[in-house]
Specification:
8-stranded mixed beta sheet, Acyl_CoA_acyltransferase, alpha+beta, 32% helix, Aminopeptidase, acyltransferase activity, transferring groups other than amino-acyl groups
């Protein structure tokens, strides 16, 4: 894994690369049907499936490119909040775009944590890696995630109809994105 992305923080959160000690908290997260409801990942109730998914997180391997998962903790009390991840696409060994994702344990919903995680992931991709674009997507029924993507400055880029299969059903995938120059404008306005 690239040393630039081992750990980063936000005002309330510490996000660090997933480690073996995170398995119990992550297993609880990915086995919660309500948490996994709007993700593109199946709910993983048995430990062998959880271990396989967790091993993939640890190895940083994804089908489309290097994938980095971050365990997210409350900085003050060290409680596990959830996960954030980035998947990079490269041209000649240089990252040019990234897709970010996030999901939280239920007890941490509606507290602004997902927005905070998404903003920091976006900052990491643009400032840390110099990518030209950051994408995110969500299940068509996930209004909360759509609000987050809009709040951090992403624009809707389309609906991939019946793109995702989950539990034997087809779902639409909503795509959002932000370009580097748009992020620079937003970051400048916040200063």
């Amino acid at each position: 894994m690239d040393s630039r992305i081992n750990e980063f923080t936000s005002p309330r959160l510490t996000c660090r690369a997933v480690q073996e000690e995170d398995f119990p908290a992550i297993a609880a997260l990915i086995s919660d049907p309500e948490v996994m409801r709007y993700t593109f990942q199946e709910c993983l109730a048995d430990e062998p499936a959880q271990r396989a998914y967790f091993s993939k997180m640890l190895s940083g391997a994804a089908a489309a490119g290097p994938w980095v998962s971050f365990a997210v903790y409350n900085t003050k009390n060290r409680n596990f909040i959830g996960l954030g991840d980035c998947e990079f696409k490269y041209i000649k060994n240089n990252p040019v775009s990234a897709e970010i994702g996030y999901f939280l344990a239920r007890e941490h919903w509606n507290q602004g944590y997902a927005t905070e995680i998404a903003e920091r992931l976006m900052d990491l991709c643009f400032a840390g890696f110099g990518v030209q674009k950051v994408n995110a997507s969500c299940h068509s029924g996930n209004a909360a995630s759509e609000r987050i993507m809009r709040k951090i400055g992403m624009r809707p880029e389309g609906c991939l109809r019946r793109e995702r299969i989950k539990e034997g059903l087809l779902y639409d995938e909503l795509r959002y994105g932000i370009l580097r120059e748009e992020w620079i404008d937003i970051a400048g306005q916040k200063r």
